[in-house]
Amino acid sequence: MRSNGRWRTAAVGSYERGDRNISMAVLAELAGFYDVPVRALLSDEGRPRVERAGHLVLDLPAVNSLEGESPDQVLLKRWVQTVQQWRGDYAGRVLSLRGSDLSLLAMSLNRAEVTVMSMFREWGVLHATSSLAVPGSS
Asked: Which intervals hold domain HTH cro/C1-type (predicted)?
């Protein structure tokens, strides 16, 4: 599903997190793009929310220099490249992610979020500014 530049990933993410206000006209347009009722974009009913403190920042040079060819590392590299494509951001040295991104990556790896964070630490791919607190981690 492509919006031909109408919907930027960062802007939609800001609406989702509540970091940015959305007008009813824009909300209706976004609902039309996704072909869902406006109500589906507003309702949190029945959706569990996991609140996390901090943010996850990957060190891109460290990710790119991973020498192991484990399936997990290959998937991480491919996933990072995909996120860069979505965002149109190829020049950065870091990649800031949301907690929902970690959840998606953990599901892709078939591992718990805590395990994924441990792997990131072990591989040395977390940037110094990363401060995501994952429930269940020490």
From this structure: 10-41
